[in-house]
Design the sequence.
């Protein structure tokens, strides 16, 4: 058994959460807006240190992180290449003037990012969070298409800032500010492939419909327009991540490309979760047959630093006028030198085999889970969906409907045993695994065992 922090199996030295996490929760309750962190008797643990696939909490408990902290730490927590780049950059320049006198690190990052894109002339707007990259993409698509209307999908998650929230579909996120959200966004059901084993039974998964039905609705919308005007933008995740790990069917992606050509639509691929190796390739769009005009990336990009990007070919991005001295879309921390240095290190990893490693580990985890849960999968109590190292297990009732809250219940059981996982899906029926691509064979085997145990306890 490995003895190095980063490659350990869970080591719990107190009940979870331990006394220090409880004490920190009390302090936090007194100073943070109450909506932000969910505080309960059995949740959360407060992180003190992380390396590779391990996290140590304030009580000294060691966890295996199967979330990569919202999908970010694909190269592992504190990947040595990222740490070295940060140390070197911190010794020279921490903050610059991103859109005025730019740091040299910004140029190197943008060149490396352009080299990974499907166009020879990629142009980028750098941002700090995923939501901001989506804001930049929605503005760019509006300018480029010349039309205000937006098509998005049920179950889609694009962020919580006002512009991106208009494209995010979940009612509870939207409700507090519903009247402030741009009304020209129409959410279509997410298309599901009805081929055996492909996507799951239509109609039982909330917010989904069969590919042909969604296309028919799209066509009607292209004729009628949205309440904000004619449709110019379609924003879609190649695999809905927080929506429950639902890949976009190839047939839909192909039909969308044909309509985009015919109607001059701008397709925005939100690859904030799926991009930069997570799905076993630099981008997930080609894997589902999506041919985007704009790509948003984030999460993995900054190696743990806040960094995201909206990238498009010149024919799309040049809808923005050339700067006349005042950038029309920028921010104080655009092109932050530390984030750019970390991002450059991450992109070298992505170009150098990180995606292939994610693909291999994904296969190992999925084949282990398929074998361990074969009877439940056969009985339609569990649906396993995945692309690369983005894996979702949807837990279902005996009648095949997704079992609300089951993903959260399984995640709770696993936390108590030293495993960090998150639920996903509109009703929390999905257990989402998005681990770092540094899990050892021993960690993979143990992960399969603990997922199996926790799932069987939830579905007796
Ligand atoms: C697909 C997708 N888009 C956008 C976002 C928003 O990113 P952020 O939380 O960094 O604003 C997320 C976050 O999970 C995401 O998964």
Sequence:
């Amino acid at each position: 058994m490995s003895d190095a922090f980063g490659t350990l199996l869970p080591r719990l030295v107190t009940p979870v959460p331990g006394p220090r996490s409880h004490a920190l929760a009390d302090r936090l309750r007194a100073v943070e807006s109450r909506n932000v962190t969910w505080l309960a008797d059995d949740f959360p643990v407060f992180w003190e240190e992380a390396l590779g696939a391990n996290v140590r909490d304030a009580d000294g408990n060691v966890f295996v992180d199967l979330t990569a902290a919202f999908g970010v730490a694909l190269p592992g927590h504190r990947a040595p290449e990222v740490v070295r780049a940060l140390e070197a950059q911190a010794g020279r320049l921490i903050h610059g003037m991103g859109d005025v006198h730019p740091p040299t690190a910004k140029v190197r990052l943008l060149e490396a990012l352009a080299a990974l894109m499907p166009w020879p002339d990629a142009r980028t707007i750098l941002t700090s969070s995923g939501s901001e990259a989506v804001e930049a993409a929605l503005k760019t698509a509006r300018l480029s298409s010349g039309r205000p209307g937006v098509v998005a999908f049920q179950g889609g998650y694009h962020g919580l800032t006002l512009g991106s929230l208009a494209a995010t579909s979940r009612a509870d996120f939207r409700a507090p500010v519903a009247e402030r959200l741009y009304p020209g966004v129409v959410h279509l059901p997410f298309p599901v492939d009805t081929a055996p084993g492909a996507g799951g039974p239509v109609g039982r998964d909330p917010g989904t419909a069969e590919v042909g039905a969604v296309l028919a609705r799209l066509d009607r919308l292209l004729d009628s327009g949205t309440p904000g005007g004619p449709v110019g933008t379609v924003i879609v995740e190649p695999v809905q991540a927080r929506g429950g790990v639902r890949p976009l069917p190839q047939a839909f992606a192909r039909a969308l490309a044909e309509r985009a050509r015919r109607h001059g639509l701008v397709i925005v691929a939100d690859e904030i979760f799926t991009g930069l190796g997570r799905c076993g390739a630099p981008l997930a769009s080609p894997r589902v047959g999506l041919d985007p005009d704009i790509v948003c990336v984030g999460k993995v990009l900054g190696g743990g630093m806040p960094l995201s990007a909206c990238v498009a070919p010149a024919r799309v991005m040049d809808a923005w006028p050339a700067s006349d001295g005042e950038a029309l879309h920028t921010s104080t921390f655009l092109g932050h030198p530390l984030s750019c240095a970390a991002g450059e290190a991450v992109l070298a990893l992505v170009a150098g085999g990180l995606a292939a490693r994610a693909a291999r580990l994904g296969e190992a985890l999925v084949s282990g889970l398929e074998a361990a849960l074969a009877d439940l999968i056969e009985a339609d109590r569990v649906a396993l969906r995945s692309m690369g190292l983005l894996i979702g297990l949807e837990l279902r009732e005996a009648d095949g409907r997704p079992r609300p809250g089951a993903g959260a219940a399984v995640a709770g059981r696993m936390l108590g045993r030293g495993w960090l996982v998150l639920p996903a899906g509109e009703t929390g029926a999905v257990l989402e695994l998005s681990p770092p691509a540094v899990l050892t064979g021993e960690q993979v085997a143990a992960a399969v065992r603990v997922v199996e145990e926790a799932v069987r306890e939830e579905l007796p």
User: Anything to note?
Assistant: The radius of gyration is 22 Å.
